[in-house]
Design goal:
mainly alpha
Length: about 300
């Protein structure tokens, strides 16, 4: 028996509305949720070679450029009179700061275009016929992890919190690249790598000023008012960066909930709590350094008031 015209029109109209609602919902989802699982870069199998080359570059910069010539020429006696412990930390902050700035310059475009724009990991980088967005991101990721490995080996003293942060970053980042090689059997390989780049981006942005702050602290140890303001800004930037990182990463993690395997659904929040705790510890340390400079200012002001007639 034929369906009445009114009933047929009602069903067709309802179906059309459901399809349109589903299409609108899909369009409103972030671009990262539309990325198909696959290889992240043709360079992924050469990760060991890439990070080895970066280690050699760090050695050349550290040994021949910074320690051999540049730092002595720029800072003079301020640098040469440092103890071995302070000097190594001073050199490390230069390498870490320069590395993060370089990554920010060269990887900001592919990161934004892939995560929030319309590109995929295999889209051409700046119109290149040979280099892809994924190539740039994987080199940037290896440079950041190599920097943390360098710090673990180079610095004679490092806090357990910093060591935990660096080791966690290295292991998570290398794991993300490794599972991408078997992406056919790892359905969350691509989104795990993208989420790692989000973590890395916030780490680079929020942790850049602290490197500059420690360098300036070693150069101008008696400029307490300047250091007080600098450490206060550093504490605030690391704190706000941690909060923003938590909001963005957990939003992306939740958006991709149906694509995660059970292992990543459990491990990812735990790893984020670890990273967040390390960054909050850094904010607390800069707050204490800010309060110390404030105390020194008060002591000097009190001393001057006693000596002045």
């Amino acid at each position: 028996m034929d369906m009445p015209l009114d009933a047929r029109s009602l069903i067709n109209g309802t179906s059309k509305n459901i399809l349109e609602a589903g299409t609108t919902h899909h369009k409103n989802r972030p671009h990262i949720s539309k990325l198909e699982n696959g290889s992240i870069s043709n360079l992924a199998p050469f990760g060991a070679l890439i990070i080895s080359i970066i280690f050699v570059i760090y050695f050349v910069i550290r040994f021949y450029l910074l320690e051999g010539y540049l730092l002595k020429s720029i800072y003079g006696k301020t640098y040469t009179s440092m103890s071995e412990l302070v000097r190594r930390g001073f050199v490390n902050h230069h390498i870490a700061g320069a590395t993060k700035l370089t990554i920010l310059i060269f990887a900001a475009y592919p990161f934004i275009d892939v995560v929030f724009g319309s590109a995929s990991l295999h889209s051409p980088f700046a119109g290149s016929k040979y280099v892809t967005q994924g190539d740039m991101l994987i080199v940037a990721a290896q440079a950041l992890m190599a920097m943390y490995v360098f710090e673990l080996f180079y610095r004679p003293k490092i806090s357990p919190v910093s060591a935990g942060h660096h080791i966690g970053t290295i292991m998570v980042g290398q794991s993300a690249i490794a599972i991408s090689l078997n992406w056919i059997h790892e359905k969350d390989a691509t989104i795990e790598f993208i989420l790692c780049t989000v973590w890395g981006a916030f780490d680079i942005i929020s942790e850049f000023l602290p490197h500059v702050s420690i360098i300036l602290y070693r150069i101008y140890p008696t400029r307490h008012n300047f250091l007080r303001k600098l450490f206060r800004i550093s504490a605030l930037t690391t704190l706000t960066g941690t909060v923003a990182e938590t909001v963005v990463t957990m939003w992306l993690f939740g958006t991709l909930w149906d694509r995660w395997t059970i292992a990543f659904k459990v491990v990812t929040p735990m790893l984020h709590v670890l990273f967040m705790s390390c960054q909050m510890w850094g904010s607390w340390n800069f707050y204490k350094m800010y309060k110390k400079q404030e105390h020194l200012l008060a002591v000097h002001a009190k001393t001057r008031s006693r000596t002045c007639p």
